[in-house]
Design brief:
mainly alpha; 4 helices
């Protein structure tokens, strides 16, 4: 799968805008409450702890790839198949 990196960068910047606090400050990692919500829905493994990463569950991986293709896929990719 190829992704349109301009769209990916814009989406990440948009997420940083969502989680901005203190007049432009943002954490380098995703919002804790949002990560907890994804865990409660069974889409990722436990986000709390010393690990630097989480795993997508089977359902989480399926949905994540579907959303990535829909929002960021380039022409001739799975993005067109999902429409």
């Amino acid at each position: 799968m190829k992704y349109d990196m301009v769209q990916v960068e814009e989406a990440l910047l948009a997420l940083l805008g969502v989680f901005e606090f203190e007049n432009g400050r943002v954490w380098k990692r995703y919002d804790f409450a949002t990560m907890d919500a994804l865990h409660e829905k069974g889409l990722i493994t436990e986000p709390r702890g010393r690990q630097e990463s989480v795993y997508l569950t089977g359902e989480g991986l399926r949905r994540a790839k579907e959303l990535a293709a829909r929002h960021f896929g380039t022409s001739g990719t799975m993005a067109q198949e999902l429409q």
